Each structure stands twice: as C-alpha cells, then as structure tokens.
Amino acid sequence: MRRIAVVTSGGDAPGMNACIRAVVRKALYHGLEVVGVRRGFHGLVAGDFAEMKSRTVGDILQRGGTILKSARSEEFRSEEGRAKALLQLRTYEIDGVIGIGGDGTHAGLSLLSKMGMTTVGIPATIDNDIGSTDSAIGFDTACNTVIDAINKIRDTATSHERTYVVEVMGRNSGHIALAAGLAGGAESILIPEVEFDIQQVCERITAGARQGKSHSIVVVAEGAEGAPNKGGLPGGCAYRIGQQIAELTGFETRIIVLGHIQRGGAPSVRDRILATTLGAKAVDVLLSGSGSGVVGVLGNEIRVMSFAEALSMKRMINMDYYELANTLSNL
Ligand code: F6P
C-alpha cells in the first residue's frame, strides 16, 4: 500500500468531512499518499482526482457536507463504467480505495473489490439503514436537527392548540422518525416498517385532546406510505396524512416537511468521534493487508467485516422503542 484514494458517495451526511480528515491524516501519518476523488463514483469513472495533503483537510472537521462533493453515477452502475473506474485507479497507481457513504456506496465498493481493487467501506447515511453498524455517520446529527425543529414546533403548536405533522427523511427506513419521535415525545410515529391505521392515529389525537393535551405531534417518515420515486421530488406523504387527520379529527392541522436541512449542519460530537475513529480504522484495514471490508461499530466495539456479510445485514427497527413511544405519549 503506497497510495490510496478516498471517495464520498450517495446522499451526504454530517460527519463526512470529519471522516475524510481522519482518513487523510492517518494515512499521511503512516507515510501513504492520498488522493481525493471528486463527485463520488462519477469522479472515479472520470478520473477526477486531487492530491490530499494535511492542510487540504484543515478546518473541515466541524463542517457539514463533503469537501469532495457527492453525486449519483449511472455510468458506474454498468460493468463498462466500473471497468473505466478501475483503469483510472490503476493509471493513478492507487492501491486501495476508502469509500464513505450508504448501502449503495458499499455495494459499489464491493463490486470494485471483486475486480481486484482493495476497498474499505465506512457507513455514512442519515437514514441509518446499514446493518453492520449500530449508528452510521450523520444519523445522530440528523436526529438532533429534527429534535431541534420539534422543540420549536411544540412552542407554536401549544400556543395555537394545533396538530402538527412533521415529515422527516427516510425513503425506505423509519430510524430517524423513530429516534426523533421517541426523543421528541410524538403522539404517533409513522414509519415504512410498521403498518398504521389512520383512524387509530386520529383516535389517539382526539383522546389526547380530551385528556387536556394542548397539541399533538405526528412524526412521519417520508416513505411511511411506501417509498417515493427514487430521484423524484421528495415529500408529499405528510400532506396526504395531514389532510386526513384534519378531516377526521376536525382539529386545526399544519404540515412541516423538514427535508434536506436534516442532511446539513455541523456534526454532533458523537458523529465526529464516530467519523474520526472509523476513518482511522479504515486506513488500518488497508495497511493490514487483510483485504477488502467494511468498518462499523457494534455494541461499542469497532468491527471489521466482509462486504458479503455487511450487505446481507439489515438494520431492524427497534420495536421496543416504538412501543415505548406509543405508551408514554398516549397517557
Ligand atoms: O440520504 C438518504 C436520504 O436522505 C433519503 O432518506 C432521502 O429519501 C434521500 O436521501 C433524498 O436524497 P436526494 O434528494 O439527494 O436524492
């Protein structure tokens, strides 16, 4: 291992920059050369590489987004595109690739490793739907962003005695909705993993009002009613649900779609530490010569596993959290 590449791919997540910094500086510490790949797998195919020095990653630890930028690449999905990417890596004499991103990133890295390139995946997605880690980089920050919004919404909801439907991200997963719903005391949490009956949701809101509650918060994952079109305009599910709630309860209802603000902002301490430790570990994995794999944290321990194992794992919804949130917010 003499020269390595680092790439961020898929939806960005707070903490990606902290992770890039850790990868670059840990690699430099061990005498490796590092190149940054711009615009995700798209840049890998195009050979859009830039030399990374210690100062290149100065003052980025605290910034959201990714200095390397991210993009979805149709070309990389084809065998031809991946062959081009491999050729670029060989031309630049790159011996290993560290990819920071979600399940799509891991799948792409796995395919590259099958073609003979050593690759290491670092989980970073606010959706937290990667089974090989308890928490993906960005999830904690995104939940804090949602909680901050819910706290503010609560103030005005109480003043006006309204019901609020708060839509959070999660095309196929309800992890943000569940964590923020539990931590934010939502009356109902609607997620793709658990079927719901809108009548029951409304009965709970009405029962709460009878008991003297001055407002209700319903947290909805954007994919609660099935995934919206990939690449299409997000949102929409909260509007339908909000309208139904308004009609069935007769209560004044407002809808908030938090959208992409959940993907931005300074990473939380938890995400910075996670990003820093996993970034450094990924370099160790490349240096160890043990081959390709994925790093993550399970039960407070940093773990390394194969792509096959990692990609077969699904992060399940914590049903205890779901039940607890329902119990506590409906008394
Ligand atoms: O990062 C994952 C995610 O936040 C999903 O929850 C969401 O559906 C998607 O990204 C939207 O991404 P984009 O608008 O960038 O395509």
3D structure, described in words:
About 45% of the residues lie in helices and about 20% in strands. The protein is built from 12 helices and 11 strands. It folds into 2 domains: about 5-140 and about 265-310, Rossmann fold (3-Layer(aba) Sandwich), CATH 3.40.50.450; about 140-265, 3-Layer(aba) Sandwich (Rossmann fold). It starts with a strand and ends with a helix. Helix 1 links the parallel strand 1 and strand 2 (about 35). By secondary structure, the protein is of the alpha/beta class. The strands form 2 sheets. Strands 3-2-1-4-5-10-11 form a 7-stranded mixed beta sheet, with helices on both faces. Helix 2 packs across helix 4 (about 80-90). It is elongated and about 70 Å long. The structure holds 6-O-phosphono-beta-D-fructofuranose. 6-O-phosphono-beta-D-fructofuranose binds near residues 125, 126 and 231.
Q: What is the fold named in CATH at topology level of the largest domain?
A: Rossmann fold
The arrangement of helices and strands along the chain is: EHEHEHHEHEHEHEHEHEHEEHH
Unreliable residue runs: none
The radius of gyration computed from the alpha-carbon positions, rounded to a whole number of angstroms, is: 21 Å
- What is the number of E strands? 11
* Oligomer description: single chain
Provide the list of bound ligands, each named once.
Answer: 6-O-phosphono-beta-D-fructofuranose
Helix content: 40-55%
- The proportion of residues in beta strands is 15-25%
**Domains, number:** 2
What are the main properties of this structure?
Rossmann fold; alpha/beta; binds 6-O-phosphono-beta-D-fructofuranose; 2 domains; 7-stranded mixed sheet; 331 residues; 11 strands; 4-stranded parallel sheet
